[in-house]
Amino acid sequence: MAEDWKNWIAQSPDKLQLAARPMDISKGQRIFHFGDKADAVYRVMNGEVCLTRFSPEGTEVVLYRAREGDFFAEASLFGSHYHCDAVCTRPGRCLRLPAEVLRHCLTNDTDFAMEWVATLSRNLRQQRAAQERLVLKSLRMRVIHYLVEHGKEGRVKLDQPIIRWAVELGASHEALYRTLAEMEREGVLQRQGQTLTLLQQKLDSPV
């Protein structure tokens, strides 16, 4: 994945290559806040950044997790302000792409614009899956949705602590621990450290 973003910037228009700026990010750092002027789009070089908002009840909800090679804040490229917070959850580096320069390149370079559309399509699919998951009323169903979406044969090795995963699922970590324990007791889920596996036989059994 590291080579992916390096190749991307190397093949980008000269104007964007000159304007792009790498920046170090530390855990807990707010890269931008809700309501800030939308003056840049970012790409994660390494580390992780979460886009978050707060629900009317005051619960922090993760809208998107940007990892190595992922863009974030591209939805604000043609807007005036950011509509969420961007928080570093794993230290690393980001590439800052000034919005004005990026818009110029998209307007004047057809090949670059088509590649950008393809990138947005990939990100949209990921964000749509996350939104579909959050509207599920049952936390158990959100867990199952996540494991099916992100896993191979229902198996996922979590790359974040349970407390952060709970935020991504729109739940408290206490509720998530209880749900995982219930699923284990019922034989629906197997948990070994950070690896979670859905047991398909149990899922297929009549209730």
* Strand count: 9
Distance between the termini: 42 Å
Estimated helix fraction: 40-55%
Characterize the overall form: elongated
* Class per helix and strand makeup: alpha+beta
Given as residue ranges, the uncertain stretches (5+ residues, pLDDT < 50) are none
What is the H-and-E element order?
Answer: HHEEEEEEHHHEHHEEH
Largest sheet: 6 strands, antiparallel
Rg, Cα atoms, Å? 19 Å
CATH superfamily caption of the largest domain: Jelly Rolls
Task: Walk me through the structure.
- Helix 3 packs across helix 4, helix 4 packs antiparallel against helix 5 and helix 6 packs across helix 7.
- It is built from eight helices and nine strands.
- The chain has two domains: 131 residues, Jelly Rolls, CATH 2.60.120; 66 residues, Orthogonal Bundle (Arc Repressor Mutant, subunit A).
- With 207 residues, the protein is an alpha+beta fold.
- Strands 1, 2, 3, 4, 5 and 6 form a six-stranded antiparallel β-sheet that branches.
Short description:
It is built from eight helices and nine strands. It is of the alpha+beta class and 207 residues long.
Describe the SSE topology.
Blueprint: H1 2-10, H2 14-19, E1 21-25, E2 30-32, E3 40-54, E4 60-66, E5 71-72, E6 85-98, H3 99-108, H4 110-134, H5 139-150, E7 155-157, H6 162-168, H7 173-185, E8 189-192, E9 195-198, H8 200-204
Antiparallel strand pairs: 1-6, 2-6, 3-4, 3-5, 3-6, 7-9, 8-9
